[in-house]
UniProtKB/TrEMBL annotation:
GO terms for biological process: DNA replication initiation; regulation of DNA replication. Oligomerizes as a right-handed, spiral filament on DNA at oriC. One of its GO terms (molecular function) is DNA replication origin binding. This is Chromosomal replication initiator protein DnaA. It comes from Streptococcus macacae NCTC 11558.
Amino acid sequence: MTENEKIFWDRVLELAQSQLKQATFDFFVSDAKLIKIEGNVATILLDDMKKLFWEKNLQPVILTAGFEVFNTEISINYVFEDIPIHDNREAAATNTDTSIENLPIVQNDLNPKYSFENFVIGDENRWAFTASVSVADLPGTTYNPLFIYGGPGLGKTHLLNAIGNAVVANNPNARVKYISAENFINEFVVHIRLQKMDELKQKFRKLDILLIDDIQSLAKKSLAATQEEFFNTFNALHENNKQIVLTSDRTPDDLNDLEQRLVTRFNWGLTVNITPPDFETRVAILNNKIQEYNYKFRTETIEYLAGQFDSNVRDLEGALKDINLVANFKNLDVITVEVAAEAIRARKQDSSPKMIVIPIEEIQKQVGKFYGVTVKEIKSTKRTQNIVLARQVGMYLAREMTDNSLPKIGKEFGGRDHSTVLHAYNKIKNILSQDDSLRIEVDTIKNKIK
Ligand code: ADP
Ligand code: MG
């Protein structure tokens, strides 16, 4: 992409984000791609069912961005993702060659970071792990469906993606799809609205492996029509010996408000449970995850951490992230128990319900202190770089950490308009998703405020 194309596209996304609800933006806009701009025509790659939405809602955004960046009217040529080629998200993200041939077309939506290799096995997950590996080795022939259930943060999503990644590694042509039940529901609703159900049917029924996460979301009376469609998809795949793997926070029989015939089918294959890791497994998981760090943990530090978080792996990972932040900041070589205890203090408090109300003034004070500007400057109209950053981060945090309304936040930041607050919030949020250094800054400030 040329420099100007990038500026144009960033602006399109920014304007769209400010005008749409977050969920709408995520669904319709976030995975669209600008391919090129030639002769005032922007070529945009989309899922074809999203075209109507773009035509109806985003024309003005494109016009605005076009005039801002190129000072001319930009028109649009939509191209679609319809050829089944498989690729993963990481490849999509790092692909800088934007010719159509080289773009990933149908996304399997696997997260490349989850593999069997980096899954630590303990007694609590051994069965689920083994079953997942056999399913990945011989999809559609061993356990079909495979149903994995267990509490939050115990590795269900990890295993689901690991299955998909292993299958794609063995056979790059395999048609694999990872989708949360929530997104399946979204897709269903959109296809109904656009009267394109046939496309949805085709899309799912030509799969070799369907990996569907958190199926409990589908267990609601109001979702009878979606359940019906899922039932048909399930049958079509199962009849053709295509593999289905499901995860859930409870057993099939406990999925109240799921049609009985679906429950019956979920019980056709193998149901495996994951329970919380015991102390030994927690130590093994921690040891596995700290390998990438370039500082050492004392053995007693690992044991201390394994003792602090005993119900879920996500918390253990979160604790390591806290420590990582501190270690990088203070340039530490060795993590002692004291350092660890200090680093995870906020997280430990976090896990108990908190009733503390944070005053906006406190946020302004801490942000100001961090960026070396005064609260008065934050509230002023000055536009020095540091002051603007402090102001925008402050507004972001005020929205993130307090229950104050946008107008109230605007008022506290020197009588600004609510749209200014929203703009600042979106802008910082956007940068945070791409820029680690700002994220570390913001986390540091947050820790000071809490
Ligand atoms: P769930 O889907 O069950 O809520 P996840 O699969 O999202 O849980 O796991 C939460 C985090 O913990 C992920 O980052 C995952 O990689 C990690 N994790 C969970 N179990 C293990 C394990 N046995 N070995 C390594 N990492 C794990
Ligand atoms: Mg999950």
